[in-house]
Amino acid sequence: MNLFDLTGKTAVIIGGNSTLGGSMAVGLGGHGADVAVVGRNEEKSEAVVKQIEAVGGKAKAFKADTTSEADLRRVLAEVLEWTGRVDVLMNCPGKNSSTPFFELTMEEWDSIMEVNLKGVVLACQIFGKHMVESGNGGSIINISSVSSDPPLSKVFTYSASKAGVNSVTKFLAREFAPARVRVNAIIPGFFPAEQNRKILSPERVESIMKHTPMNRFGEASELQGAAVFLASERASGFVTGALIRVDGGFGAMTI
């Protein structure tokens, strides 16, 4: 018995065309899942589809604004038309900013919260309802951040949004458990990705390394194992409400 075989399962990756989301999508596809890559940028989504196909997986790109209820409902219908099922939902949207607190406008606050928190809640409502009602169980994997607790300096709104993701994860784990739909979160440490490069000054990098016992950034592929583990009912069937750190020891560091 292969604990990590996802053959016959369909995984919907919201933000699957991002650096980290794309890598995890490849991991799931490589272990047999049919992968729906959902994002606004079609070109990036198609590039991830090709990567999944290159490892022997099956994938399809779906265009959507991940904060739009209408778009997500349409994508659910299109995925069901494609494979007839949804077994895994992964939420990995990410919008960051280093605006100082007293300069933060409520427009910026709303835009970050809309992507990082509202988008997760919407996807869990729409895809989660289908999973709960299908009777097949399933796995929801939310992508949080080491900034969720305790909050990092300089990224106030991002930290607050990811703390919200942790709370949503635990709440829904309790609510969905009777339907055998597990809800967990991965807490990545520092992985150089598009959305955080602009705030990684040399001083910031030095500070991060001092706080990371493994003394390096993570590679996007190093998130694949946690994603496949949480997606597989055989491997993690009794795991729900968990926040799993993949952070090089960042969360264990004090002085």
TrEMBL record:
Is Oxidoreductase there in the keyword field?
A: yes
Identify this protein by name.
Answer: SDR family oxidoreductase
Q: What is the similarity comment for this entry?
A: Belongs to the short-chain dehydrogenases/reductases (SDR) family.
Q: Which keywords has UniProt assigned to this entry?
A: Oxidoreductase
Native organism? Paenibacillus thermoaerophilus
What are the top taxonomic ranks of the organism?
Bacteria, Bacillati, Bacillota, Bacilli, Bacillales
Q: Name one Pfam family in it.
A: adh_short_C2
- What PROSITE patterns does the entry give? ADH_SHORT
Cross-referenced SUPFAM superfamilies:
NAD(P)-binding Rossmann-fold domains
